[in-house]
Specification:
111 residues, single chain, 0% strand, mainly alpha
């Protein structure tokens, strides 16, 4: 595995944040919440780098956009921002936890 390969996680998270925060603003109308989730994703990616958890960093970066789409598609009311936000946050946490689980499982199997 190349060392620089996981830097794509940061780049993908940044691109996803710009797309959701600015380009897709009309779909959700949220200003601070995309920033909050992106910041938390960046913290997870940094922790994943520090602990050499490759899948966690990738799941955190890809999960940001995937969970936004899921939140948008699964919302109950077209005008409700809280429905998108809540579903987005929950699915994002689940995706990140899946990455952590898979990383830990891989570590255990290689020992």
């Amino acid at each position: 595995m190349k060392k620089g390969l996981d830097y794509y996680s940061v780049i993908y998270l940044l691109i996803s944040w710009v797309a959701i925060r600015f380009l897709l603003f009309g779909m959700h109308g949220m200003k601070g919440r995309p920033d909050l989730l992106a910041f938390r994703g960046a913290v997870v990616i940094a922790a994943g780098f520090a602990m050499k958890m490759r899948l966690t960093t990738r799941f955190a970066s890809l999960g940001y956009f995937v969970s936004f789409l899921a939140g948008y598609l699964l919302r109950k009311d077209d005008r409700s921002v809280s429905g998108i936000w809540l579903i987005w946050a929950i699915i994002y946490v689940l995706i990140v936890l899946m990455g952590v689980y898979l990383d830990l499982k891989m570590r255990k199997s290689t020992k």
